[in-house]
Amino acid sequence: MCTDYHWGSYCHLSKLDDPAILDKDNYARNLSSIFQHLIIMSLQEILFIHLRQDI
């Protein structure tokens, strides 16, 4: 089962999945895009909190 997010798609590992969906390169790419998104979100939160403290 693949879930589409606004930053890309993520395929969940499941026995019901088509083996083509679980292509290792695609899985790694999806996983890295999720981590990149989480890092960006974290940085935005940190910047937002930092900017609010200056006000």
TrEMBL record:
<protein>
    <submittedName>
        <fullName>Uncharacterized protein</fullName>
    </submittedName>
</protein>
